[in-house]
Amino acid sequence: MDFKKFLPWIVVGGLVVVIAFWVMGLKNSALGYSQATEKEWGNVQTAYQRRNDLIDNLVKTVKGAADFEKGTLTAVIEARAKATSVTIDPKNITPEQLAQFNQAQSGVTSSLSRLLVSVEQYPQLKANENFLKLQDELASTENQILTSRTRFNESIQAYNSYVLAMPQSFFLGSYKEKAYFQAVAGADKVPEVKF
């Protein structure tokens, strides 16, 4: 049998197999990066959920204080409800979805800040051990939120760098650029503190 006449077909077949495995490797790597972004988004949501759980306990503790401003508590409860109603599909994160989520979470942060400022007028509440513990846990949770958002953005950067680079972008048309978690508009301005 003369292998010389089959040699070109064997070489072409071998190249096709090598290219097919290479493209599968690209897709598997892209899938891994995509899964990492979804995991990190889950961590962001977990941190915000932790804050929401703490807010429930904080509101219950503050409600026990005599004559506490009901409007402040209502604002916190409403902001929390609005924030928990915003959901994002981690497979298809868009800048618009992140902006909506960020705006809702910003409302929680703002109303919570007003609550903590108004607590200063209630010495019996400031002396409450449960309140102080919740306040410490809330500060820790805010740090956890910051860390989670940072790690999420790092995973987005790794994903985008991979799927947008050549030659991957040519073979990975179904993988689109994902949006970063960005600061709320005006976050770059120093807040004015009034005493």
List the helices and strands and how they pair.
Layout: H1 7-63, H2 70-85, H3 95-119, H4 123-126, H5 129-164, H6 168-171
Helix pairs in contact: 1-2, 1-5, 2-3
Could you please describe the fold and organization of this structure?
The chain has 195 residues and is mostly helical. It has a single domain (8-171), classed as LemA-like domain (de novo design (two linked rop proteins)). Helix content is 73%, strand content 0%. It has helices at 7-63, 70-85, 95-119, 123-126, 129-164, 168-171. It is rod-shaped and about 100 Å long.
Q: Mind summarizing the main beta sheet?
A: none
Q: What is the string of helix and strand elements?
A: HHHHHH
CATH fold naming: de novo design (two linked rop proteins)
- Tally of alpha and pi helices: 6
* Overall CATH architecture: Up-down Bundle
Provide the β-strand percentage band.
under 5%
Shape: rod-shaped
Our measurement of the CA-to-CA distance between the termini, rounded to an integer number of angstroms, reads 96 Å
Classify the secondary structure makeup into a structural class: mainly alpha
For the record, the CATH class is Mainly Alpha
The CATH homologous superfamily corresponds to LemA-like domain
Q: What's the overall average pLDDT, rounded?
A: 84
| Whole-number tally of structural domains | 1
Outline the low-pLDDT stretches: none
Fraction of helical residues: over 70%
How many runs of DSSP E, i.e. beta strands? 0
